[in-house]
Write a structure and sequence with these properties.
17% helix, elongated, 264 residues, 40% strand, single chain
Length: 264
């Protein structure tokens, strides 16, 4: 499809990661599409990998201006991206793209000094030991203690979008996008030995309390945002925030999540 014939129905802005491949693709796309500045755009075209996509989404969260995002993969995995097929036909692909709406997790962390930090996570919130000492963490769901003491490297809570990222590496379950579930997954657990995690409704509020925090310090990470020496952490879905990702028909995120479960 020739871009001169099929112009996009909305104003597009272009963002790209550093690197020869992404920069070269950006030059090609600028030769086919009249892009505008991001603050004037109706949608963003993002070239790079999943990490750059997450950076872009977090940038929109910080700026409080959300527009749909169409990713083009020139990174490693590109789970949140579409295949890069060259510059031709981009506007047509975006006009025909399938929107997928997602909400991030909202994390509230309280440090040992009493400071409060609030941050959002699109993939997961992870609690991780800071030293060689095993972390000991109490886990509550909707104010009911479910695990009095988890001993191990830590624990994470993942969204369906993030269920194929760190969560999968920690042997957590893959969650279909429309499942309305969250994955609670231990990281290298020592006790309790037979607990392998839980799948929770996304209406749940999950709380973590660090036991023996001075002897066994724990950090929390919401995607890339880290808070060290936490005493407790509370996490729930931020229902007031909706982000829209655009995918080529037949290659949408929900289909990728299903397909990932059959990879051997």
């Amino acid at each position: 499809m020739n871009e001169a014939i099929h112009q996009p129905r909305r104003k597009l802005a272009l963002l790209h990661s550093q690197g020869d491949a992404a920069e070269g693709a950006a030059r090609d796309l600028r030769g086919c599409v009249d892009f505008v500045e991001p603050d004037r755009a109706d949608a963003l075209v993002v070239i790079g990998g999943d990490g750059f996509m997450l950076d872009t989404l977090h940038g929109m969260l910080a700026g409080e201006r959300m527009v749909p995002v169409f990713g083009l993969n020139l990174g490693t995995v590109g789970f949140l991206m579409n295949r890069y097929r060259g510059a031709s036909g981009l506007a047509y692909r975006i006009d025909k793209a399938k929107p997928v709406s997602v909400s991030p997790l909202r994390m509230e962390a309280v440090t040992q000094g009493g400071e409060r930090e609030v941050s959002c996570a699109i993939n997961e919130v992870s609690l991780l030991r800071e030293t060689r000492q095993t972390a000991k963490i109490e886990i509550s769901v909707n104010d009911r203690v479910r695990i009095p003491e988890l001993a191990g490297d830590g624990v994470l809570l993942a969204t369906p979008v993030g269920s194929t990222a760190y969560n999968l590496s920690a042997h957590g379950p893959i969650l279909p996008l429309g499942s309305q579930m969250l994955a609670l997954t231990p990281i290298s657990p020592f006790r309790p030995r037979r607990w392998r995690g839980a799948i929770l409704p996304d209406t749940s509020r999950i709380s973590f309390r660090v036991r023996e925090p001075h002897k066994r310090p724990v950090a929390v990470v919401a995607d890339q945002k880290e808070v060290r020496d936490v005493a407790e952490v509370h996490v729930e879905i931020a229902r007031d925030i909706r982000m829209e990702l655009l995918f080529d028909p037949g290659h949408a995120l929900d289909e990728r999540i299903v397909a990932e479960q059959f990879i051997t």
